[in-house]
Amino acid sequence: MSFKVKTILLFLGISLIPYALTMFLLGNSFRQEQYNAISQELNTQLSLTVARIDQHLQTLQQDMAFMAKSDIMNDLYTQDLDRRIGNTLLAKKKDMNLEGNFFVIDKSKKIIASSDFAMIGKVLDTAPFFSVPVYSTFTREEIAELVVDYRIENFRHYFSDSPQRHYYLLYPDGKSGLRQTLLEEPIKASRKLDVKPELTIVLEEEKAFAYRLLYKYERWFVLLLIAGAVFISIAAYYVATGLIRPVITLSDTAKKVTRTQDYTQQVSLHRDDEIGQLSNSFNMMILGMDNALGEITTLNKEIEDTQREVVFTMGSIGESRSKETGNHVKRVAEYSKILALHYGLEESEAEMLKQASPMHDIGKVAIPDAILNKPGRFDEHERRIMDTHAALGYEMLKHSNRALLKAAAIVANEHHEKWDGSGYPRKLAGEDIHIYGRITAIADVFDALGSDRVYKKAWDDERIFALFKEERGKHFDPALVDIFFAHLDEFLTVREHFKDIVEDDNQV
Q: Which stretch of DSSP H or E encloses residue 357?
């Protein structure tokens, strides 16, 4: 995760968390207030309804008590059971707009008078809603009972139902009456009647309807929360970006320096704070690195030059012991590079081979002078000793970790191997011979044949060229022989430039 992202997330955490917490607390407080308001409104509405019903039932009781004491009830005592009592009861039913009837029953529950004349003579087998004793005004004794089979449908006159809100009754046994439809997730308020305590009035309202205003405000609240979060996020992005822009500038400059190795890069941040101090320190560090790099480059060049000089000198020492001139190793070096480049090696590798090839005969320093400078042919024993110089040179150089000396070790060990496998010291053949060895073999033989030695005179070019053609695919890599002849003019130019100077023996 980048520093920029971390900074933005930090700002978001510092800003969004308190904001979200505050909005949550405000929203929760508002929600609780709405819940309380809705609950209070339901209870208020229910209280008003229950009060109206209680008043209605109280009025009913009072009216029944008044009728029970009226003079007309004396007809019961005198057994004058005409329709006067029934008509009075019917009139009261109509006056009160009741669902149900008034009955006058005797002690055996037999209906002796009723607002419904068809019920006279029948036995009342249900518990009356209200009952009032009827006393004779003459004897003051109870002669009957005035009852009403009040039906709960009468309560509908006091219920203001709607599809989302309705009332219903709840009996002591848990059964409900006058219930319409079941609402989804209703909220409820309930209250018992004072006049008829066994009855409970329940008011329920659909939650979604009751909280419609709350839900509306909550949607706006969520939108406000999202808008605030977006604003804070944008602000955090720009604030964080502004704060870390100098750091990004420093980072980009550092990456550019790493990529281009250009230590002249500088960061221009004109600030007096810690970032400005950091940029100044960075510029001083880069300047110091540039100076140090210059010194390192100079030292490396000196080391490389010294290394090449040492390698060349060691090669010259080997050649000087066999009475060969220093120009021999120079020519072999130049020939090797020409062959390497035309063969397809990279410039850097061709140059390294040029620097390594002078070490091809370094092993000769371990060969006795009597053998090394013998003017005639070697006997078998002398030849075996002479042939060891390749392996001796390899042993001298193989332990180095320097690329140049590793290449020199290969050249020393394999420049006498032959393409057909008849060479030494390991009788390698074909491409098993390292390309360095194959190239140096041609360069060394070409120069050796064209130069005077203690054991021979220099060959003329025609004889040398004839030998190369004859040894193509035998001693030498055929591809390298073809390259040699294709670029012969370059080889001859090098030979002319580095030709040996014959000193006059009479010169003092």
A: none
Nearest-10 crossing angle of helices 435-449, 478-486:
50
CATH of 300-497, one of 3.40.50.2000, 1.10.3210.10, 1.20.1250.20, 1.10.443.10: 1.10.3210.10
- Same fold: 39-148 with 300-497: no
Residues of the chain with pLDDT below 50 are 321-325, 503-508
List pLDDT tens digits, range 260-308.
Answer: 777 666 766 666 666 666 767 777 777 776 676 667 667 666 666 655 5
| Calpha distance 324→318 (Å, rounded) | 9
The token pair at 376 is: 């005639």
CATH number of 39-148: 3.30.450.20
Q: State whether the Cα torsion 281-284-290-293 is positive or negative.
A: negative
Q: What is the pLDDT of residue 269?
A: 66
What backbone torsions phi and psi does residue 40 show, to the nearest 5 degrees?
Answer: -65, -40
Task: List active site positions.
Answer: 364
Residues 309, 314, 320, 324: what is their CA dihedral angle, to the nearest 10 degrees? -70
Q: Rounded CA gap, 54 and 193, in Å?
A: 6
